[in-house]
Structures are given as C-alpha cells and as structure tokens.
Amino acid sequence: MKTFITQFFTWWNGQTLGTRFFTWRKGTKVGEDELGNIYYEGLSTFDSEGRKRRWVIYNGYAEASAIPAGWHGWMHHRVDTPPSQENYKPYGWEKSHQPNLTGSPAAYRPKGSIAHGDNRPTVTGDYDAWTPGA
Where are the alpha helices (DSSP H) in the chain? Predict the structure, then answer.
C-alpha cells in the first residue's frame, strides 16, 4: 500500500503510476546500469525531432547526474547502440557518479562564504564601485 501511495503522489522518488502505465503500454526495456536505473525506448512514440523517445526510471530519487556516461550518450541520441548491447567500457578520464552535495555538510563552501566559517578576506583597494552618473 505504501508503494502505491508513493507512486501516486511523488514524481521524484522512482516512477509515478502514470509513468508506469505509459512505460507498460509504449516502452521497451533496453537495459539497466550499475546504479539500478532502467532505460526504455518507445515502441511508437517519437520526440519533436522524429526520433524514438527514450527515458529512464531512476532507482530511488530522480537525479539526472546519476546517469553514467555511456547511458548519457544513448539517452541524448549521441549513439544508436545502448551500452547494454555492446561491450562498453568507460574511458579513464570519465568520472563515476558523485551525488549533488548542495545543502549537505560536504557541500562546496568557497573562502569568504558565510557558511565557510572563516573571516572574509579584506578588501585590497583595487576595486572601485560604479556610481551612476559619475
């Protein structure tokens, strides 16, 4: 019952009932990545450019950065073959997924930020403020 209510009211945590029904009617499962995200391609649904529609059902919260590089290329029609149908190996320069840390204790806080805790650097005098009409 909890799963039903979650799917009915939340779009950010998995899939809604509408997405589940649409996927059941019009989607073909193409593959799954190491994070548990499931990728689909439309049977007879097309995007505004006439290409087959592609979508992902996230494992957990919907976060676009949680799509690995190989699947990202397929989702955005950069490649025609999904990583599940080829021997895809990420390049050494491709980074693995790192969640968005905004709002967490590990978030980036530059020097001078109120959240950083240090004192703001003193002004050196090399900046003149703009004044209208001056």
Answer: 2-9, 17-26, 69-75
